[in-house]
Design a protein that fits this description.
- Component of the exocyst complex.
- InterPro entries: Cullin_repeat-like_dom_sf, Exo70, Exo70_C.
- Belongs to the EXO70 family.
- This protein folds into 2 domains: 175 residues, Exocyst complex component Exo70 (Monooxygenase, Up-down Bundle), CATH 1.20.1280; 113 residues, Monooxygenase, CATH 1.20.1280.
- The chain is built from 14 helices and no strands.
- Helix content is 74%, strand content 0%.
């Protein structure tokens, strides 16, 4: 800010013109250089503090980390002094031009945050939560940059690359968090049993068919029971996780629903008839597709605006 004030006087040469002001001009010029060096050192020290920030300091719900929000706000603050920063880093960019010097500094701050976040994400025992943490934080960085003048410095390509990174984290989360649930809806290992069960139900294979029917129905019941357990555990856990960006939250829930609901409907249609007439059928076929969808809507609800 002090450097900005000096520059607003529109050059030391203009203010201290003439031979009689030579000494003052020299002193002012030295002051400007000192202020520029102080500004550079401030950014260097800040970047070092980001790198050294404890990796064990993580949020329990995968929310945006205070370090991320602080750096995002800091970059916005720097943009209030963009004209001064351009002059400072033009001087230190060794002829590469204004843009490369300042962009390098901004990119360095962001890279330091991302490196720290990667280490923090590895501290989570639940891999899916670590992925969610990265998704939330990178998304916050992108939104912060897009909403400030920094977007013109880093460029659209940089923003698009980070948005793809957010999407990659979302896809990875879906695979890691919901893989076991979806495995329960696989027909693998059930197809031949269902054939025997169908024959048994039709009474076409006598006592052997009847035994196969009992075994197959038991296997299907176990699969439904396993699905219920896995689904409920995931939902119960992730109700307490956070996605503060409502659009991101809604899109992620929709992405899960677009995979889970068709798989459940298919499983229900194919194997449901073997269970629906059995004793306590509702114990195994607990959910309609509509009930699943409604339950998914409760995910990441901990910090939703009231």
């Amino acid at each position: 800010e002090q450097f900005d004030i000096v520059l607003d006087e529109r050059t030391v040469e203009a203010v201290f013109a003439g031979d009689e002001c030579a000494e003052n001009r020299k002193s002012a010029s030295t002051l400007v250089k000192c202020l520029a060096q102080a500004a550079k050192k401030t950014l260097i020290d800040f970047k070092d503090s980001i790198v050294k920030e404890s990796p064990k300091n993580t949020s329990t719900d995968g929310d945006v980390h205070p370090l991320t929000s602080y750096v995002g706000n800091y970059i916005k603050y720097l943009m209030d002094y963009q004209s001064s920063l351009k002059l400072i880093f033009q001087e230190s960019s060794n002829g590469d031009g204004t843009k490369s010097g300042l962009v390098s500094e901004i990119s360095g701050l962001i890279h330091a945050v991302e490196t720290n976040l990667d280490v923090k994400a590895k501290q989570y025992k639940d891999h899916a939560l670590g992925i969610l943490f990265l998704m939330n934080n990178i998304n916050y960085i992108v939104r912060s940059i897009r909403s400030s003048e920094a977007k013109d410095l880093v460029g659209d390509d940089w923003i698009q690359r980070r948005r793809r990174t957010v999407q990659q984290h979302a896809t990875q989360y879906k695979r890691v968090a919901w893989g076991k649930v979806l495995d329960c809806l696989s027909a693998q290992g059930l197809t031949s049993s269902v054939g025997s069960a169908t024959e048994g139900i039709a009474g076409s294979v006598g006592s052997i068919g009847s035994h196969s029917s009992t075994t197959s129905t038991s296997v299907i019941k176990a699969r439904f029971k396993s699905f219920n357990k896995q689904f409920e555990e995931v939902c119960q856990t992730q109700m307490n996780w956070a996605i503060p960006d409502k659009e991101l939250r809604d899109n992620l829930i929709l992405a899960v629903a677009e995979v889970l609901l068709p798989a459940y409907r298919s499983f229900l249609k194919r194997f449901g008839p073997l269970v629906e007439n059995s004793h306590h059928a509702s114990k195994y076929m607990k959910y309609t597709p509509e009930a699943l969808e409604q339950t998914l809507g409760n995910l990441f609800a901990k910090k939703l605006p009231q």
